[in-house]
């Protein structure tokens, strides 16, 4: 659990939002 937590912390929020926005655009 700790390992995956550290892995997620390395991903900036803006990158996550970018990916989610792209996925949303593709699905819609």
Automatic annotation (TrEMBL):
**By what name is this protein known?**
Type II toxin-antitoxin system PemK/MazF family toxin
Which organism was this protein described from? Answer: Oceanidesulfovibrio indonesiensis
């Amino acid at each position: 659990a700790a390992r995956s937590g550290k892995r997620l912390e390395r991903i900036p929020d803006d990158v996550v939002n970018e990916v989610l926005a792209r996925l949303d655009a593709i699905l819609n």
